Amino acid sequence: MNPRPLPSDAHRDSATQKLQKVLAQAGLGSRRDMEQWITAGRVTVNGVKAHLGLRVGPRDLIRVDGRLLRPGTEGELPRVLLYHKPEGEIVARDDRERRPSVFDKLPPVRGAKWLAVGRLDFNSCGLLILTTSGELANRMMHPRFGLEREYAVRIRGRVAPADMERLKRGIRLEDGAARFESIVEEGGEGANRWYRVVVREGRKRLVRRMFAALGATVSRLMRVRFGAIRLPPRLRRGQLVELPPGEIRQLLASLDLPATGTSLRIRTD
Question: Which of 11, 112, 230, 240 has its CA 20 to 30 A from that of 86?
Fold first, then answer.
């Protein structure tokens, strides 16, 4: 039997989407990951090797590494986990130093994989959100939505009121200007002071670098909120909890994502 022809790139009706977006929505990885898979020749559509920019519809047969993606249950929701990350774990699957990974503790998921919404560095702790939806992860991290990240930060020393204003107005870092949406002192003992800060972007080690620009050293950093999701007060370090369907629907709606729809899963039978 001859393979189905690839859908025309000019056929751009509302029933088609870009291939990398469809793969990300299936929970296989981020859009960037999926673009790399397509470029590497790991994806076929209707028996033909796919290319970047290809649009696909519900009737197209998509295979990844030869395995068919099948429709999931109509209205199936992505899964979302909240994990209280302790210090001493990395947010990556592969590490040359073989350090403990947050992914080592996650429950198995069939036909998809867990994706981290942003990262926390090895020495940071607190709220880490994980999901099976690449599109959900992408929107939560995308600058267009500007979701707030709130941190409790302990530093050695004290930030002068004038420097707190500087941090809110914006300071120059090696990769561009950065600012806190807010910074509030929350007391402390001895040489250590606690601050509560809010940022709207997820650049690498941003909070630590902003304090370092003022000569202050962060001795502890804990994320307590990402967007509307707060770290549950009873969730101990190293523990995780799964969001219930109602809260997942609210999260999807807040990011202009459909709360129902047909998902894709890699066929495992």
Answer: 112
